[in-house]
Each structure stands twice: as C-alpha cells, then as structure tokens.
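Researcher: Please generate the 3D structure of the following complex. Treat every line as part of one assembly.
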Amino acid sequence: MADESAIQSIVTPVRMEYTFTPGAASQRFLLGLAAGKLMGQRCPECRKVYVPPRGACPRCGVATRDEVEVADRGTVTTFCIVRVPSENIDLELPYTAAQILLDGADIPFFALIQECPWDQVRMGMRVEAVWRPEAEWGPTFENIRHFRPTGEPDVPFERFQQHL
Amino acid sequence: MTDANAAGEILTAQHVMEYPYRRSLGPVLSAFFTGLRDRTILGARTRDGRVLVPPAEYDPETGEATGDLVEVGPAGTVTSWAWVHEPRDVHPLDRPFAFALVRLDGADSALLHTVVVDDKAGMRTGMRVEPRWRDETEGRIQDIECFVPEAGVA
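Model: Done. Output below.
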C-alpha cells in the first residue's frame, strides 16, 4: 500500500469505571493515613507485620487482627530507576521508585524517592516520609508526597536481606 | 480520592481504568477504514466467491488468504437486532437504538452496527436500511453514525 493518506491505525479506547471499596483491613490502613499514621497488622502466628495490611497472613493463612503502628521512616531494600515517561506521572526523568521497609514492618512497599539525585539512591539507604500539609490529608496514600534521605548511616545488607 | 460514606463506615472511591489503545490495521482493514473515510464500504472476496464484511485477511472457513476487496452496499438487510432502551455513556448513541447485524447488498456476512428508528416497533428482522454518514469522516467505524430505514421503503 503506497497510499500515504491511507488509514494505518485506529484508536479503540478501553475504559472501565467502577466503585472501589477497600475492604476492612485496607480501610483501617486508609483511615490511619487520614490521621497521619501508618497502620499495619501483625500475624498472630509468625509475628510478621504487614503494611499495608490485607487482613490475612499470606504465609500462615490466618487472619491478622492486631493493629500495629509503624514508623514513617525506613530503609530502601531495592529500587528501580524510571526513564520512561507515563501520561499520568508528572515527574522529571529519570526518577527512582523504591521498595521501602518501614521501621517496625516486615514487608516493604513501593514509594517514590525524591530530594536525592537518582544515581545516589542505594540499597540500605535510610529514608523518611515527606507528608503533605495536614489540611490536605484524606484516606489516601497521596498524603505522603514522597520519601527522602534522612542522612543516617546505611543499613547493612544482612539486616534487610530477609525482607527483599 | 476516597470518601467515607454518610455513616462514616465504609470507604468508597470512583476508579477509572482507561487505555487509549491504538491498533495498527494491516493492509485489509487499512483499506476498509480508508474506504469508510471516502464513504464506501469494502468487503473481502474469498476464493469460493463469498464476500466478507467487514473484510477479514483470512477466510474463517478455510484459513486461506482472502482476495480482492469489493465495494458493497451501501444499503442492506437487518438479519438480527437487539433494542437498547436506555443507552449508557459507553454506547455509541445517546437515544434508544438497536444494535443490529446488517448484511449489506453484495455481502455474505453481516456487519455489526446500530439502527435508529423512532420506536422499537419500527424494528424488524429483514428490514431494509442504509447508512447515515457523519458530515466529517475520519476513517473509523463511527464515520457511519448509524443505519436508518432505507429511503423510499415503508
């Protein structure tokens, strides 16, 4: 087909609108965020603390009920340097997304690292949450703008290798 | 955004998941959509002489590549339909309409599209319809706004 003006592609949007309900465990986590707290749950058998909690321990298969507040600072266990732009993400490239093990938690979760050059993020780096102004808080993880380095000494790999 | 409900007990949030998916067409469907832009409807002729609309690159019966593209219609016959009483946002029309299979004149398969009539009572299998083209065509299936009863047919 040499016809330069031929239609070569079409856009077929795929769209789904739905009402999300978080469920009991995630709801407690979200309400904790609205109060400026990071709430996890402890497994009654293996004693691991899950943040955010899902209401059950995936290892022991039992319900988790004990609420545990964890710190809003922790350790980078691993990270990813993002060089590809996304339509909904308005950040200067490249930026760093990291798995952060909060102090008091046993599993890391995913968050953005800022206030630090992307090529200086490292495994074991200590970071803390940067919260939005309290007046803007709601039951959403968006209350935390990002994490930034605390300047504390790095944590040795041996101390978080079980949490990767 | 998540909001507590009136009782303050159950959080809910409206989520939208959306992909602006762009599909490359290949030679056969490229010709079909380019044809729509020019207000013509093309079908693909199979080796045994049937005409498939919309055109396929391969004969679904035999797996053989299809051959020439041929112009069909524009009028045709409704072979099956379902009435939509209350269109939703995702529907192509904002008034009651029928989703219909339309076998265009010269075609051996039916095209899924919409038929607009004043009332459901005006729909029947076997009715003759013709396309209503949009004022501006871009090379997409929506260039046909809908099918309507063929002019001059009761």
